[in-house]
Amino acid sequence: MGKSYTIAVLPGDGTGPEVVREGLKVLKAASKRYGFSLQLTSFDFGGERYLKTGEILPAGAVEELRKFNAIFLGAIGHPDVKPGILEKGLLLNLRFELDQYINLRPVKLYPGVETPIKDKGPAEIDYTVIRENSGDVYAGIGGIMMKGSPHEVAEQTMVYTRYQVERCIRYAFEYTRTHGKKARGLSDVNTLALVGKTNVLTYVFDLWERVFHEVGAKDYPEVKRDYYHVDATCMWMIKNPEWFDILVTANMFGDIITDLGAITQGGMGIAAGGNINPGGVSMFEPIGGSAPKYTGMNVINPLAAIASASMMMDTLGEREAAKGIEDAVMYITQHKVKNLGAGKMGYSTSEVGDMVADRVASA
Ligand code: IPM
Ligand code: MN
Predict the structure, then answer these.
(1) Residue 296 DSSP label
(2) How does pLDDT run across 135-162, given as a tens digit for each residue?
(3) Most informative mutation of 76, 105, 255 for ligand 1 (most atoms within 8 A of CB)
(4) pTM for the whole structure
(5) Is the CB of 271 within 6 Å of ligand 1?
(6) Would you state the pLDDT for residue 287?
(7) What is the span of the domain harbouring residue 172?
(8) Of ligand 1's atoms, which has the minimum distance to the CA of residue 92?
């Protein structure tokens, strides 16, 4: 008998429920094919609930969510709720409260998917960004003084503790060992590159750089270490993405470069991410948002949600099932869904889910 996993399902707003439904359909096929079982519990957190009750996360919700093996999230964002409220109250709140200190964002161009980068294909665009997810300017240290007056002052501080940096760096080395290009048979070395700004942010990235080399030299000597400034990284993500294997960076830089990465892999319809607490409960989400104008039309692309379901199974230790789902997604991008845009796929949301689920079951 295979293992059983408890999953909290947060469909959320807009097209979230539609893509989550397809993700669950594919997970169900994978559970049969690979011999594990899932116990699903749904929660209605999101914009609708907030508008009705004035409450974003009810009391006890975090404690409740902490009991699950993983969280599968659709999308957060509602046209009638002011920007920032749900993002901070739900998404960032859960990341912080559940101490999901890693944001894992693969940048992988699947076969058949169009990239805006000329002359690059799946062989070149295939790397992962590990974004630190608990510190930096996201920690909310700062304030505003004399607001509205000519003398007003606003400050928001980039802050990192050694503890935060070290746990992220260690996760990144471990991940490089298991998921780097050597581990995947694509190179004779696994490489982890630190992305920073040591030439200007001489305090924060001095800390990052020292921890990176100390931990690497002592505990991961077989992993090759590189360093790139974040501005140059943006350039190379377009010009030479094949140089990259695993990248690790701070929260704000990671937020920015992963949108750039997402567009090089075909955009928000395909980009998946995981908010990881390696010792606790992790949360997986398509990074595309709630796309309110397509809500309920059965036209949105579910592949990003399906790919995040694959990441969830990988993190839970079901690597074969994870690979089976990802291979099925790649089969569909190569042979079926040529255009990833909402309403342009040539198939409905549920048809795409059916095709991936069938492929998982039969491959
Ligand atoms: C992301 C998003 C969030 C972030 C927003 C919605 C708070 O942009 O997941 O990348 O900045 O982390
Ligand atoms: Mn972002």
Answers:
(1) T
(2) 999 999 999 999 999 999 999 999 999 9
(3) 255
(4) 0.96
(5) no
(6) 87
(7) 115-265
(8) 7
Are residues 260 and 274 located together in one domain of the fold?
no
Q: Which of 219, 236, 265 is the last residue of a domain?
A: 265
Put the strands of the sheet holding 224-229 in their side by side order: 37-42, 4-12, 70-75, 282-286, 272-276, 102-108, 126-132, 246-249, 191-196, 224-229
Q: Which protein residue has the closest C-alpha to ligand 1 atom 7?
A: 87
DSSP for 139-204 reads G--EEEESTTSTT-EEEE-----HHHHHHHHHHHHHHHHHHSTTTTTS-SS-EEEEEE-TTT-TTH
Domain count, the chain: 2
CATH code, 318? 3.40.718.10
Which of residues 265, 286, 309 is at a domain's end?
265
Q: What is the pLDDT of residue 1?
A: 66
Token pair, residue 217, equals 């030299």
Averaged pLDDT for residues 18-47: 97
